[in-house]
Write a structure and sequence with these properties.
Length: 369
Amino acid sequence: MEDPSSRRDFIKSCIFLAVSGFCLSPLSLCAGCNKSENASLAETAKTRKSIDNAGRRADIAPHFEPAYLKLHKSGELKRRGEELWSMMNRCRLCPRQCGADRLAGQRGFCQASSQLEISSFHPHFGEERSLVGSGGSGTIFFTHCSLRCVFCINWEISQGGAGEARHIEALAMMLRLQEIGCHNINLVTPTHYSPHILLAVDIAAGSGLRLPLVYNTCGWESAEILKKLDGIIDIYLPDFKYGDSRMADRYSSGAGTYTEITKAALLEMHRQVGVAKPARDGLMYRGMMIRHLVMPHGVSGTRMVIEWISENLPRDTYVNLMSQYTPVYKAYLYPEIARKITRQEYREAVEWARQAHLTNLDIQGSPFL
């Protein structure tokens, strides 16, 4: 998810789009603004002409072939999308398994119906370096969320419902992100829209989509659903938010099963895509990249998270120890998380990772170390 402490990433995105000649309305750059975007063929042609003039193209390794192409060609990708779609009649796409009949228009615990809703899409320069490269990570922010954390940095999107209804075909925006030079398609909070995503990728793959798919998730994923994504997702980007499910129960709307379910999910993700390591061009094409947000007063159970990773996954598993916790949304109602972390708290997290012999760490050092 986005780090709001840096407006430089936002500004860089705007500059990149301007230089590319790629015109988007404000919502494509700022989540929560009003937007009505159903590009006509003429607008699409105009956009492509601008891109051609700027000379922008997705800069990825020529030998790379995304995992989903094989399943698209066989028809399996569409079949799995339709299978997930049918699961919305008594929704069980996320671990809450709320049972809402989303196909009949009901909204689940996540507040999503079967109507696709998207908040924004744009090249994002605030993600991990191996995802950003020189052209940015092509992020698509989906509206709503099943976890509903009280400290969510993007609460306007995840819980405030900022975004607009779109048809599945509108996810052809993936092709536009490819054309302007993004290195991947970064699906942010995708769980409740996984059927829509698979059906849209099937359409886009038939029109030339060749970028790796990044499944940017809270980590709390049903193993049953993840198995239906096998052979489709190239890069899993899960959070591992809590080492103790009691904290998830308190701060994430009663998600008392978070830790155990997330552990099983991480094992399944690793089985599918393995260890994430950049290619020779510095970009990530495959693997699992775990994010852990260090929180004040040990709320996120950092030591337990690190020890579990060390004991259950390869020690060269990619782990991003994030230092940017900011008390927003309802965090002020909980005194123990109503402040940023200290230098000492982050130093301890790094030291624990080193003691656990984790060797593939992304450490955010300058303000803390």
